[in-house]
Amino acid sequence: MSGPVKSITGRLKEEPLVSVGVAGTIGALLYATWGIHRNNAKQTQWGMRGRVIMQGLTIAALVGYGLFRSKDAPKAPANKGNIRPIDWDKLEREAREAEAKDSEAKSQKPTSPALEKLKAQLKKEKEAEAKSVFKKEEPKK
Known about the structure:
Mean pLDDT: 83
Shape: elongated
Distance between the termini: 122 Å
Structural class: mainly alpha
Number of strands: 0
Radius of gyration: 41 Å
Largest sheet: none
Helix content: over 70%
Order of helices and strands: HHHHH
Number of helices: 5
């Protein structure tokens, strides 16, 4: 047998209640569909109720098999040898230092010579304006 077929037959052997539940769900759905076709409301209603019950039993079988398998599975060790504990204080301290360096680097950005020249010219203009305000005016004759 090939891979998928072998997998399906293996599942049917390992989990027979699931396959019974699926078959029961399909049967109830067909029963309800036949009731719709014959305009028999009572048969349709019973078919739908049966479908819901069979779906619930199928889900319960899936969950039950899953729980059963999880108990049989080998437990993984909680702490493997290559995992070291985290020093949260050190991690926070390093993050704050990196943040401080980043903000310090942003505040000391290199500026272009043209920008420096414009800043110096603006500073001279402001100083000249400040001197002219405080300069004593001579009375006019």
